[in-house]
């Protein structure tokens, strides 16, 4: 039950995102729900591999390259989900950053300490 609540709240965060980053468009609640799943799957399945492959550049940039990886995965999700549109890399960068903050607040509100520790 907690997973469904978290999914719905993350979709709500995606619905709020165009109010903060005007370049991003979310056309419907359905698109937000699907995008929340796709972003979660990309972060679970592909992000660890990308972090491993880009470890040298991540170390050289003192971890800042992780922001680039997050933005690229956010942008890829927009290409996979109809009704969720991110026009360019910089919008993806800002959108991924704001979405990360919003989902962190969701985790904090739900009292999920494990999710908070996984994000570090």
UniProtKB/TrEMBL annotation:
Keywords for this protein: Membrane, Transmembrane, Transmembrane helix
Transmembrane region(s): 20-42, 49-77, 89-110
Keyword Phosphoprotein attached: no
Pfam family, one: Phage_holin_4_2
Superkingdom, natural source: Bacteria
Coiled-coil region list: none
Designated name of the protein: Phage holin family protein
Organism for this UniProt entry: Uliginosibacterium flavum
């Amino acid at each position: 039950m907690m997973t469904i609540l978290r999914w719905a709240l993350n979709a709500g965060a995606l619905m709020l995102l165009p109010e903060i980053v005007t370049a991003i468009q979310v056309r419907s609640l359905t698109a937000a729900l699907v995008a929340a799943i796709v972003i979660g799957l990309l972060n679970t399945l592909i992000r660890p591999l990308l972090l491993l492959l880009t470890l040298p550049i991540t170390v050289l940039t003192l971890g800042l390259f992780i922001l680039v990886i997050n933005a690229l995965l956010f942008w890829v999700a927009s290409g996979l989900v109809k009704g969720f549109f991110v026009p360019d890399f910089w919008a993806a960068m800002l959108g991924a950053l704001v979405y990360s903050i919003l989902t962190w607040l969701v985790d904090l509100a739900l009292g999920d300490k494990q999710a908070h520790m996984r994000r570090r």
